[in-house]
Write a structure and sequence with these properties.
By secondary structure, the chain is mainly beta. It is 12% helix and 39% strand. The longest helix has 23 residues. It is globular and about 60 Å long.
Length: 323
């Protein structure tokens, strides 16, 4: 009788826990519009043009970050206006659905609606899956979805002081040449970080109008990094620092400590933490780079400046992506 009572109590406790988790889960509505527009890329710095005929989500490269919690339902709608010339689609790497249904192409003048549960915590790429996929990604149709763990912040996954999103992709001056994108190793001319060559690097382009990432000394800075290259891995490395923690795929259960360089595969995402130094200097610079030199010196360098008067808005809210 006593054993039966213990089993009953255990079942009730488990049921209550599941019910509580379900109560906290929510539905997050996300709508994106496919836009075929011209965007600035700083392409002249690597022999291309400053303006690219892009295909985008909501008119920018990358698309907006999507933030949810583990267990949430994403209620998604993709709108493809009749003014567009091409079909577009959405492929969320965080979704477990049907590739022939939810991820199916959407013709101009139509829209697509689907839902999915974000079952796995981490940081994931999203991108257009319409054919030719290589061209849709290379022209700018990608972004990040961040799925926070249901446990929230813990000792193993501490709360950061600031957060930034960095998405790297290859820059192709000839966006129409799909064959070259697939088979010509010399077709790409540079690297885009959040849509621009040397986006956050005033050092190698001192005459340009470049922003930088900022933090105060001693802060934990969390970087959500996505490799949106179509062909090349990224050797993610912080010059003048060490990655304090690497959360493989952004999942706190997959943690590495004290890493100098982490290799990020094509279409992979990773979360990394940096702790800015405390010293007597007015400012300290850390360069977050792709240590593949043909990528770094052609655009894949982002400068993080640590200083006492760091902009308090940077690394929070919408400013996790600096435009």
């Amino acid at each position: 009788m006593y054993a039966l009572k213990k089993v009953t109590i255990a079942i009730l406790a488990a049921t209550a826990l599941i019910s509580a988790q379900q109560a906290f889960a929510k539905t997050v509505k996300v709508t994106m519009t496919a836009q075929e527009v011209d965007v600035q890329t700083n392409g002249k710095l690597v022999g291309g043009a400053d303006i690219m005929a892009a295909w985008t989500f909501d008119g920018s490269i990358p698309g907006k970050p999507v933030r949810v919690e583990e267990g949430d339902t994403v209620d998604f709608t993709l709108v493809n206006p009749a003014t567009n010339k091409n079909s577009h689609a959405m492929d969320f790497h965080a979704a477990q659905v049907s590739v022939l249904d939810e991820f199916a192409p959407v013709k101009p003048g139509e829209s697509k609606h689907f839902t999915f549960e974000a079952k796995v915590p981490g940081v994931f790429m999203y991108h257009c899956g319409a054919g030719p996929m290589v061209q849709h990604i290379a022209r700018g149709m990608y972004g990040v979805i961040i799925v926070a763990p249901k446990e929230g912040y813990t000792k193993a996954y501490p709360k950061p002081d600031r957060e930034y999103v960095l998405i790297q992709s290859q820059y192709f001056p000839d966006v129409e040449n799909v064959g070259a994108m697939l088979g010509d190793a010399n077709a790409w001319k540079g690297s885009l970080i959040n849509g621009k060559v040397l986006h956050y690097d005033p050092v190698h382009d001192p005459k340009g109008d470049h922003d930088v990432l900022e933090a105060m000394p001693g802060e934990r800075v969390r970087i959500y990094f996505v490799n949106a290259n179509i062909n090349l891995p990224v050797a993610l490395h912080p010059i003048a620092s060490i990655l304090d923690r690497v959360y493989i795929n952004g999942n706190p259960k997959n943690t590495l400590y004290g890493v100098q360089t982490y290799n990020v595969a094509v279409a992979e995402a990773v979360t990394v933490d940096l702790v800015t130094p405390i010293n007597d200097k007015a400012a300290t610079g850390i360069a977050i780079v792709d240590h593949s030199m043909n990528a770094a010196l052609r655009g894949a360098i982002s400068v993080l400046v640590s200083k006492k008067d760091a902009d308090p808005a940077k690394g929070h809210g919408e400013l996790i992506i600096l435009k």
